[in-house]
Amino acid sequence: MRKTTPSRAMNILLLNQYYPPDLAPTGRYLHDLAQQLVARGHAVTTLTSRSSYACDQRWPARETIDGVDVQRVGGLRIGRRYLLLRAIEQASFLLRLAIRLRRLRPTPDFILCLTTPPFLGALVRAIRRHRTPYGQWIMDLYPDVLFAHELVKPTSWCARRLAGLARYAARGGTFAVGLGPDMAARMAIYAGRCPVEAIPLWSLGAEEPPSPTAVQAMRRERGWADEDLILMYSGNMGRGHRFSEFLEAAAATPPESHLRWIFAGGGMRRDEVEQFAVDHPDAPIELLPYTAPDALATHLLSADVHLMSLDKRWEGCMIPSKVQAICQLGRPLLFVGGRNNSPSEWIVRYEAGWVVDEKDAAGLQQALQEMRDPLERARRGAGARRLAQEQFDATRNGERLCDLIEQQEN
């Protein structure tokens, strides 16, 4: 990590609903950035929630983590499974955060807000003291996520009000950062004259990959033979992803093929995958829970090819964060979705795997046939590693974010 001496040490405030030791990815990325800011001589404070992203853990009201002053506010903890309950929980956090922001001393020199909860930037613009400058790091683009979700019709009165809120948040900021060119382009529609940058995320895993012995041991523990070709979907099984193409291909997989379709993780659509496996008992489908962070690299390397998907309606709204860790470890990707999004463009440009259009069963079968060749998998895995080196470097991309923040120094 680069240590620099800025012209003036800044008092920087970071805002997100979740933060380590919570395991929510957005909070972990924010902590990576916070550590770089501390290393560059800045005083960094994080305002976050005492509630946990995925469990009933309640975090301390205040602590120091790696030089970052972490302050947490209370709020309702009523569950994330249903959208209404999640919205109530987020509204509770926003209310308590607003009260804390009004009382916070000293006034920060700059505020960086993420998008959990949505429209956090609008709250900051409305209640910031002394016109403190702020920027947005867009992890999920709202209200477009709600349109893709089909929760709000894009032509409705509600959509117009939400779009106005997004414009209000973006145009009051000094910059906005999207996770890829597609997201940045979509964000620019709301941003007006506010500059929008595209800075990809990076791998949250360990820099040193696990040993081949550890990977083989995990495969044996899971009952996978050396000749089995493991195709794994790992992570959140959310609404923005496609599963039908993978599941239908799994149902058509003959037992003697040695293809195994693994779905590891959770999310709103895991039940759908589980039910498909029950309805198709002969399909070589296995479900696994989320993997602990300290075993994630071994878990990812236990697969030969990783499954990834993005519904066309969600292009530019989000970018699955698992692509960074998979590519860093040199595993190829099988992507199902549209072509006008950053993940598919990266995979094609670097030959980091296979891209198959939605509902293209023949194209998917061709990709499955090609990946049976270990030399072809190795070639595309090398492309994935090259993609990670050029696009997902943690230090370089973190420094770009730090530079943006330091440029706001008055």
Show the helix and strand layout:
Elements: E1 11-15, H1 25-39, E2 43-49, E3 62-65, E4 68-73, H2 83-103, E5 110-113, H3 120-127, E6 134-137, H4 144-148, H5 157-171, E7 175-178, H6 181-191, E8 196-198, H7 212-221, E9 229-236, H8 244-251, E10 259-266, H9 270-279, E11 285-288, H10 296-301, E12 305-310, H11 322-328, E13 333-337, H12 342-350, E14 353-356, H13 361-370, H14 374-391, H15 394-406
Parallel strand pairs: 1-2, 1-5, 2-4, 5-6, 6-7, 7-8, 9-10, 9-12, 10-11, 12-13, 13-14
Antiparallel strand pairs: 3-4
Helix pairs in contact: 1-15, 2-3, 3-5, 5-6, 11-14
Task: Write a short abstract of this structure.
The protein is α/β, with parallel strands linked by helices. It has helices spanning 25-39, 83-103, 120-127, 144-148, 157-171, 181-191, 212-221, 244-251, 270-279, 296-301, 322-328, 342-350, 361-370, 374-391, 394-406; strands spanning 11-15, 43-49, 62-65, 68-73, 110-113, 134-137, 175-178, 196-198, 229-236, 259-266, 285-288, 305-310, 333-337, 353-356. It contains 15 helices and 14 strands.
